[in-house]
Design brief:
Structural class: alpha+beta
Radius of gyration: 16 Å
Number of helices: 3
Helix content: 10-25%
Order of helices and strands: HEEEEEEEEHH
Largest sheet: 8 strands, antiparallel
CATH class: Mainly Beta
Number of domains: 1
CATH architecture: Ribbon
Distance between the termini: 26 Å
Shape: globular
Number of strands: 8
CATH topology: Umud Fragment, subunit A
CATH superfamily: Umud Fragment, subunit A
Strand content: 25-35%
Length: 152
């Protein structure tokens, strides 16, 4: 029998940051819907390592902390170099980006656990799916409306 345990975000963030600072791989369950259709809440998880913000590239999925303290897992849509380095982050179920500074980036995903299977972010099949989804950005809003109406 599985028991659900509730943990305050303040406690979770301490555990998360401690694990990352020790160089550990941290698995974080997906809780929101912003990464649909790739990641489903309550089913999938992101496998994270401490990020080198200077090494992030388009298509990477990073965990960052907003100014209000909220933790967010989104994909790097673009890398801005001027006037200073910044990232445009975008959830897969979104079409409007959010500008994030390197100091806000905490971790980067190296893999995902989807339906019980581990998928590396470096696998060619995964990178092709991500490239296709990025290419479909102009149609994303319409595609998501159609996808949400399909029978599950």
């Amino acid at each position: 029998m599985n028991k659900q345990v509730e943990v305050a975000m303040s406690e979770l963030s301490e555990l998360l940051l401690d694990g990352l600072s020790r160089g550990q791989e941290v698995t974080l369950p997906v809780t929101g819907v912003s990464m649909l259709p790739f990641l489903r809440p309550q089913r999938d998880a992101a496998v994270l390592i401490a990020a080198d913000p200077a090494a992030l590239r388009r298509g990477d999925v990073a965990l960052f902390r907003r100014d209000n303290g909220q933790y967010v897992l989104h994909r790097v849509h673009a890398v801005e170099e001027t006037p200073a380095r910044a990232y445009v982050m975008l959830g897969d179920a979104q079409w409007i980006g959010e500008r994030v500074l390197p100091l806000q980036v905490l971790a980067v995903a190296t893999a995902f656990e989807v339906k019980g299977r581990r998928i590396s972010t470096e696998s060619p099949a995964y990178r092709r799916r991500v490239a296709l989804w990025r290419w479909l950005l102009p149609l994303r809003r319409v595609l998501l409306v159609v996808w949400r109406r399909l029978p599950k």
